[in-house]
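Researcher: Please predict.
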Amino acid sequence: MKRFRFRLEPLLRYRGFRERQAQQKLFQAQTDLADSERRILKGNEAFAESAKSLDEKTSAGIPITEYRLHRGYLTGIEMALDMERRRRSKLQQVTEKRQQELAQKSKEKKLLENLKDRKKEVYYQDITQYLQKEIDDMVTVRKAREIIE
């Protein structure tokens, strides 16, 4: 009796490979997004600390050149934060796109897995029917021999 063989097995393996690739891409996008969010948090903290420091120094009285230096630094932090927020927005879009791609790849693989399972079930049903037929034939032959004797 021959074993069950699914002719589309190479395609199923390939789709599994593509699904794993999509998972890796999604993981990378999620990691990049988390890094961006950490940078934004650190930038906000740095901005708050620098603004507090500037307020303290301003109330104590500082020269205008030092004030301009601090304001320039705060402006630089604001610009960096703005750029990082835009980057985060793009990374969120990329992450959503990668999630959709992964969902599609998973559907494609699951479709083939379901087909394989159905084919396997039909194969085993055919084998069961064949074996039952063989058993019935053996019983019929045995009964025929008993009648002849």
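Model: The chain has two helices and no strands.
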